Amino acid sequence: MEIDETGSQVSNGPVQPPSGEGRRSVSIIVPTYQEGESLPPLIERLDRLRSAGWDLEVLIVDDNSRDGTEEFIESLEAAWIRLIVRQDDRGLSTAVMKGLEEASHDLLVVMDADLSHPPESIPAFVEALSDGAEFVIGSRYVPGGSTEDGWGYLRWVNSKVATVMARPFTRVKDPMSGFLGLRRDTWLRAEDLDPIGYKIGLELIVKCRCTKVAEVPIHFSTRRHGESKLTLKVQKDYLKHIIRLARWKYPERSSFIPFAVVGAMGIGVYVALLAVLVPLLSSVMGKPWIIAIAILLTMCFNFILDRKLAFWWAGKERVATQFVGFVAICTVPVLVNFWVTTSFSADDQMVTPLAGMIGAAVGSVLGVLFNWSVSRLLLFSRPRRDA
Ligand code: GDD
Ligand code: MN
Q1: pLDDT tens readout for residues 33-74
Q2: Which of 29, 189, 191, 330 could anchor a disulfide with 99, C-beta 3.0 to 4.6 Å?
Q3: The pTM is what?
């Protein structure tokens, strides 16, 4: 076992099968949907591990595939294989959670049914867990790991982009992997698990607050039977998942950053409104009124977006009160700005373009900080960890 530069551990080399007292018990969770054809070869390869001395319990969590899966498992009459057929629930993550809840051993492994994940790597998982890892990933992207040829360019790009998006949460090389190992005490630490996470490995690393994550190199094979369940919807869900994880792990930053971005967009909206409204309304009203209208409309724009993106926990209630409060809060830095600018203008020498720019930059940074913290404090009370 070596520690790589990202702090994750890479485990290499063959592992001797356990024997006698060292015999290790492992629960293997296999979520399935229409994997009838893949199950016989999977069970056969797992059974070979048993012959080598491993004590395995296999939990197949099937979402009512009706493709012969039930009949096949029943025909095996194997006490070490349990089939859980879910009638009402659907979805990969909840299936995995169900399997983890039902598992009876202290070492837990989650793997796909389609033979993309080699069961022969399970001993290396166990070794990593015994060496102190809290969580193990079967990884395509550490030395020794690989992906079978024939992965389309699109799927590869997809996987890379998704991996980069997971960087704020973990530095492991293959956080998208669905081949996982963990100790029961790690699993019991999980908080607020979110079933939208198709990437259950990433979800568990974050929500179990894992710091010691090991990566075991695997060869990821292309499935031979059936089809992938990864669709466009899965990618949309992944985006939602990343946002939820960010709000869970970094609640302050994921509120302030959108607030600052919306603030910057607001400046653009304000300038555009002036450009449109000044020529349109000059004949009917004075400049100060037009400016006031543009400011108010900009505040509406910011309020609507901030409520959704920066203060996402704000419910449906109290919109009117919040709007009035929001306008009042935004007005404070505006008035301060106005006062500072006019008092400097008294002395013409003071207002050079550079000083003006610096003033505006400092003013907007302070303004954004002020608006955000006061809005949070007075209008949108702190989020609970349930976003
Ligand atoms: N019970 C249940 N319910 N199982 C499901 C469901 C579901 O709704 N959807 C998928 N599965 C099972 C499949 O039967 C399979 O055993 C496993 O979950 C993975 O599904 P695949 O359809 O084979 O996924 P994939 O090959 O596109 O994705 C693989 O690669 C990803 C990394 O690129 C999986 O290993 C993913 O876990 C991994 O993230
Ligand atoms: Mn697959």
Answers
A1: 999 999 999 999 999 999 999 999 999 999 999 999 999 999
A2: 29
A3: 0.84
